[in-house]
Amino acid sequence: MWCPHSPPGCHLYQPHTRISLHPRGLKYHYLFSPADSSGLKPTLVFLHGFPSNANEWRHQIRFFLGRGYGVLAPDLLGYGGTDKPTDVAAYAKSLMSADIIAIMDEEGITKTKVYAVGHDWGCALISGLATFYPARFAGFAFLAVGYLAPTPDYNFEAFNASAKALVGYECFGYFYFFAEEGADKIIADHIGTFLSILYPHDSKMRLAHMAPRDKIKDWVLSRKMTPPPSYLTQDDLDVHKAELLEGGLAGPLCWYKQYTTGMVAEDDKLVPKENYVIKQPVFFAATLNDHICPPEVGLVSLKPGCPNLTIKEYHTDHWVQLAAPEQLNKDLLEWIESQ
Known about the structure:
By secondary structure, this protein is of the alpha/beta class. The protein has 15 helices and nine strands. Helix content is 41%, strand content 12%. Helix 1 (58-65) crosses helix 15 and helix 2 (93-106) packs across helix 3. The longest helix is centred in the first third of the chain and has 14 residues, at 93-106. The radius of gyration is 19 Å and the shape is globular. It starts with 18 loop residues before the first strand and ends with a helix. Residues 42-322 form the AB hydrolase-1 domain. Keywords: Hydrolase.
């Protein structure tokens, strides 16, 4: 599954696929290549967001493999070749964090330095790794979305209102549609229209047709289309569409339901309070043209929760790893090598 859409030369590496993990017995599809034999290069764990898979990291994988780094890039729960449970409780950060640690243990990633790099919901999972397993990592990089600090009293309505007060408009209205019963089937029936608003050529279209409550559902049902951004071809979107239709959207949408139902609050109660502040170095990629996840919202938790914080700004939309891969790769490399 990986190689047809992976970086050139991926046939030189043998990715493990569908490894059974315990105690949950779930199967994860992932690419792993160990660091070079010098013992000096760290391993990077790349965690994608919605509605993607590990292929989202193709530019970063090629760049860092070429420099001797180890790379672990899983399809996260609900995506790609990984299992897709529809029980929302299966998507708790504590459980998915344990899954990633199990993969690391399976591959012997225990002695090398490890940096976790996440985008979108991958940042939520990095937040789980940072708070449940801080000793396993040398640093954390958050792209577009910031650190989701433990919030035992989390309430989505309050969070949505506070973000609106901060930036002057509703950012997360699309959560309501994604949490609706049957939203996965509506999206599947209009997958082309859905992807066109997630990846529009003009990022401001997401501000009008995705951020406010009910607008994305209206867009999806309208069957409207908008051209893709310059960093994606129609072929890219066609492949993405086929993968999503094959696996369905019920699993990926569970990531949102963790938050709209408040399940995340119970999970956050498990985090030791001494782990609320991330002590390792943290990198934040602020995507200045991202109207859905504006940097101001991410910085609310990053500044108090990450005292060793490096911020880099990018004039891109949400998908900085696709829109500005050369600059992002350069900045990540400099940040890691400065530690």
